[in-house]
Design goal:
Distance between the termini: 35 Å
Shape: globular
Structural class: mainly alpha
Radius of gyration: 20 Å
Number of helices: 16
Largest sheet: none
Helix content: 55-70%
């Protein structure tokens, strides 16, 4: 898959101040391939081969063992506390729900997952990371106990999501940024607010990187972060699949460009 100069110019036309700097980065090396080309090619290939690749990942010995241990523990559990105290369960459950980076925080995980979402003061409702609220709603441990997670349909869905995530992580090891791109593509149409973007680490990473916003924006007040995104992006456009794919490519190119330079980010944009 080749990427022409005119295509990249069009791709970054909507990014204030980004076109010149990114195209200079991409073409500054003369004959070298544009930054992000390998990642875009990998992403495109992954979309095409995703079903069979995830199925193959599910058959890997380590994945099968993790899912088997999870399934047995869920089926034999007699209480929510017992279930969520099992490291094998938490590894698969959190990873499958996009919370693999939180596996080490067992106390936080148990408290968030068992939050009563009808209580505005419950932990999941108070955390800015909206992934916890989504997971708590999915399994409803607070009011339904083990009934939801012990449903065979739920167990199967978690097993599939775990294999999907492991596959994405493997792809990301070879082509950094691809896992975020794949996850973003699955979630983009459900984005309804800037706060939703800011509360989800994957959405935040893709959007801020694609828009050329520095990581330091995270230390600014929430209102400033909201303004930095909303002034550069109309989130209703995420309902357009073509726009989503173009935005993902913008992210992959920008992410590769960021990784290829050691120069510090510029000032905070608002």
């Amino acid at each position: 898959m080749s990427i022409s100069s005119s295509y990249l110019t069009s791709l970054f036309a909507a990014m204030p101040g980004a076109q010149s700097s990114l195209l200079d980065t991409l073409y500054g090396g003369g004959s070298s391939a544009p930054s992000g080309q390998a990642e875009i090619q990998a992403y495109t290939s992954d979309l095409k081969n995703q079903t069979q690749d995830v199925a193959a990942t599910a058959q890997q010995p380590t994945v099968k063992q993790a899912v088997s241990q999870f399934t047995k523990a869920v089926q034999s559990a007699t209480s929510v506390n017992q279930l969520l105290s099992n490291p094998a369960v938490m590894n698969v459950l959190l990873t499958a729900n996009g919370l693999g980076d939180q596996v080490a925080y067992t106390g936080l995980a148990k408290a968030a997952l068992t939050s009563d979402l009808t209580n505005t003061n419950s932990l999941a409702n108070q955390l800015t990371d909206t992934r916890w609220k989504t997971a708590a709603a999915n399994y409803n441990f607070a009011t339904s106990g083990l009934s939801v997670i012990q449903n065979p349909t739920t167990i199967n869905a978690i097993a599939q999501a775990y294999a999907q995530t492991v596959w994405e992580q493997n792809e990301d090891n070879a082509n950094p940024g691809v896992a975020n791109a794949l996850a973003f593509g699955q979630q983009a149409s459900s984005i309804t607010s800037v706060d939703q973007i800011l509360g989800n680490s994957t959405l935040r990473t893709v959007v801020t990187t694609a828009l050329g916003l520095p990581e330091a924006i995270a230390i600014q007040p929430l209102e400033a972060q909201e303004r930095a995104i909303s002034s550069r992006l109309n989130i209703s456009q995420f309902q357009d699949p073509k726009f989503v794919q173009n935005f993902i490519q913008r992210y992959l190119v920008a992410n590769a460009a960021n990784a290829s330079t050691s120069s510090p980010s510029g000032g905070i944009l608002v």
